[in-house]
Amino acid sequence: MFKYRNQTFQCFLALIAFFLVSAAVLPHRWARTPFGATQAAVQGVAPRSPQEQLIYHNNIGIALLEQFSFREAIAEFSECLKTNARFVPSLVNTGLAHFYLQEFPKAQEFLLSALSLDPNQPNALFAMGMIYRNQNQMDLALDSFKKILVADPQDSQVLYQIGQIYLKKQDYNQAETFLRKVVELSPYDVAAYYNLATTLIRKGNQAEGQKVMEHFTQLREKGGISSTGTQYGEQGKYMMAIGEYAEIKALALGASPAPAKPIRFVDATKAAGLHFQHGAQVGAGASNEDNVSLMGSGAAFCDYDNDGFLDLYLANSSADASKSHGALYHNDGRGHFQEVTEKAGIHFTGLGMGAYWGDFNNDSKPDLFLTNYGPNVLYQNNGDGTFTDVTAKAGVGGDQHWHLSAAIADYDHDGDLDIFVGNFLEVKGLLAGNPIRHSTDKTTGGSCHLFRNNGNGTFTDVADEAKVKIPHEAITSVAFTDFDNRRDVDFWTVSLNQGNHLYSNQRVGTFRDMNSVLGPIASLKALSVSVGDYNKDGWMDFALVPQIGEPILIKNQGGVKFAQENFLPFSQFFDYDNDGDLDLFLLAGASPKDSNNAGPELWENQGGKFVNVTEKVGLAAFRGKAYRSATFGDFDNDGDTDILLTVNGGSPVLLRNDGGNQNNWIKIRLQGTNSNKLGIGTKAEVKSGTLWQKVEINGGTGYLSQSPPEVIFGLGNHRSVDVVRLLWPGGVLQSEINLPINQTKLIHELDRKGTSCPLLYTWNGSSYQFVTDFLGGCAIGYLESPGHYNTPDTDEYVKISSKQLQAKDGSYSLKVNNQLEEVLYIDQTELLVLDHPADVDLFPNERLMPEPPYPPFKIYTAKNARPPKAAWDGQGKDVLPLIAKIDRTYPDNFKLLPYKGYAEEHDLILDLGDLSKASNINLLMTAWIDYADSTANFKAPQVGAQLVPPYLQVKNAKGQWQTVIPSMGFPAGLPKTMVVDLTGKFLTQDYQARIVTSMRIYWDQILVNTYSTQPALKQFRLAPQKAELRFGGFPREYSPDGHRPLLYNYDWIDPVAPWKSHTGDYTGFGEVTPLLKSKEDMYVIMRNGDEIQIDFSASQLPPVPAGWERSFFFYADGFGKDMDLHSASPDRVTPLPFHSMSGYPYPSTEKYPADTAHLRYQREYNTRNVPSMVSQLPR
Predict the structure, then answer these.
(1) E strand spans, 607-690
(2) Can you tell me the distance from the alpha carbon of 976 to that of 772, in angstroms, rounded to the nearest whole number?
(3) What is the value of pTM for the model shown?
(4) What does the pLDDT average to over 248-274?
(5) What are the angstrom distances between the C-alpha of 325 and each of 190, 298, 463, 899?
């Protein structure tokens, strides 16, 4: 299809087409009017045609299904059916929505209607098979599933269902046949292995059955997948809504009409004011410097002054380094660049190679990083149009290596950008007068640098400890990407002498070399690598560009296998005509002595067939130059993509795209909040009509250059962006529907708290009311410091007042909700009922401690507790009014550090008054805490910041503060009261106490209790009468007074929240009472949005005596695990925790119990599988 020219040097730059949008944010709209003769902004949007309405409402309905908004989805599909009552996709999708609402008769009605129109429609057949199976009509279920196999005999989900049915029918031969096919097709399917083992054992093949059962046990511990599940997205592709279907394709708008005027790339170099000249000279000599200069240089677009227009930096390499100056050009917004290098304070001279922009200090002002023959240079953006050289302070110079390509990314996911620099040939090994040989295996290279951003303006080279440094490697290109879709930053390097290396991020500061997975691909010769999902399967593919010959496409097959696809040579994707598909741009460069055939080529994607349009778009006129690299961006803000090509020994060529904006488009810019400010590393899925695409924003791929962190997404003649989903590198998931077109959108990352604890709601006689969160210490895999994980405190008693809990139909009813982004493992619950005198208050001995031993069970009594005599903070400010009563005001006059949960060390001083006659002294301390997360604990030590838990001091005989409680503890999570026993702690008659911490703890009330009598209490312990797990949704957050913390309103339930989910098996919906009656490592495993309603019988309790009051304490035991990338095993439900484990993650010598009871528990209860953290939008 393509004819590719052999050259002595070829350079390619990766354009990563990136598109995103946020949810619940009012995006910024640039107010400037685009200029240029080819401007084609749409001033109004015509009504959608009936065909467009079908596609639009189907897309919106699918998005709502994915958000579990089934009723709303049905409404959208009904709009489709109003237009066309025989539209099979919407009939099927409506049936699926009713299915997930468990409205099976309605589901059956729509599914059978679809099958009457298309008897072989696989989604309808699968769903009907599930309905028949649930109704115990096994023969009808088999008939439905087997019809699917006619067209798709290799679908493991269908085969699994058939195998399951045969197992239930006790036809073990057939069950074995189908289940063996499942494990062959899906070798990590734990449910299939378990059922195959069961089949073999029941068939009488005990030996093989036990062997398969052992494999099941091993696979389960490693986090295998499962074929089971009941929620949307958990049962395979045929239980997903139809987003791509022949009938929809037939309704597609077709190819975008030919543009009214031809699209041309026009040389705008001089008109734009670019007068730069690259300094390399052919034939000037044979020194190292002469040879080095021929390798450069790159360029990079970026809006460094945030005025909405792309500026430009051009690197330079001349044999005379003293005269080799790069150039910074400022875009004036009228299609013209002004050279401002000296004015901006960029004074670097030397052999410049690459140029890369990144906001390394997260101040929203992009900084400039230059790779060079010799030390790198980092210029910090001052925000006033000038830059300061901070190389020495930052520590990114890298000494006297030949630094070639680089890439920018937040590899450790701590919120700031790190830098990988590939070193080329070792400078000291080059002999003057000898030409540089670019393709020898005997080349001695300088390996690499991995500069970790410390967050304080400095970097540390961690290449060795990160296990990415290969001695003498001569690296020419590097690209960061998430090749295995595990939410972390991996990368691929290319070198002349060591081939290719793919590194998988292990999330503990190290990488694993995946060359064993690459196989022969690892030894392919190349000069550069580029990244993009060329086949739209959701997995990032790679393109290797060799020194001589055709580019090589590397197809990513699910992150575990890679295939070489030589039949499709290409360089970079970009949509030059905004028609909604990706065209191919090739750039062949050569030395100035051999450049007659060098130049750009453009291949247009015409319905999957690529046609050479180089002559048609005017690019043939630009052959004959020694091109080196390229950067893509919309420099004139007219809505189409322009190209700047760098030329060795010559002037760059700025190719203005004239006419590409005649189709619709949207341009996106990013502004990170907790992620890096430029959003580098963000993923986005986009759906517009029949268009679908998944992209990443990358901080540099290819060779020497970088495109800006903005993207134009071509829409063809589609009139809106229907659905967009954005996954930021910090883990925040944002979604949006119905975006306007032909505009620039600045999208701010939402500031979402992704982890918490389970929430408790109680029936108060009229409604369920929010009480607090609980099990704040139950986290497993929580990183306390690099390499050190916490020891969980697995149980807690939560106080509930008599006003908060009233009997309902003879039972006390409580609800436990998993509100946020975590998996919960609830093992046991009880309701402790205590009757006591009405003038006495009760408090549990609960507080969160940084490490064991944890507080034992105890009930404290209080009476007539009072505020301190005085209270002030470390600055001497009177804070007594803030802590005297519970009113959601608290002392907060302390400086917060830029790490979640961290503050500067601060103190609170309490004068407790005269306590000389008190035999018992307690502080009743009510507070809430803004937790530090694993990422903060990973990042803070890089700059020496420490998290100091509260400790308490009193005055000694010398009048000095002396620590008497080294670890005081603190209330866990949302507002709770803890008791601090100060009896016997005072060293003098001075009853002042000083509390010191660097945690963000907000004290709402502190009372002094001297009550010493222990009244008789009547105690009753209630086990659950009934417990049921169901999907409960997400109670709405609110603040009654504008203050934090946020509370939750159970009367206002959102059906969806922007959270990801751990993959693996969760407990199936239904009754779970037996699991909660005792502590035995058999959990109710809860996904976000799940709730357990737990009822305790009130009928067995005696009446409350006169003058007494009844208080309640909810007891829970269990574990929880968040999705912080620095937590242990943050993506999977497994490995399951257990109480006797030495820690989490536990060593290979320890295992979750595998006895008969625990295996039966997993098989019978944990039947709800979530196969992926974030399901893709249907394509």
Answers:
(1) 609-612, 627-633, 642-647, 653-658, 664-671, 683-688
(2) 8
(3) 0.70
(4) 78
(5) 61, 13, 30, 39
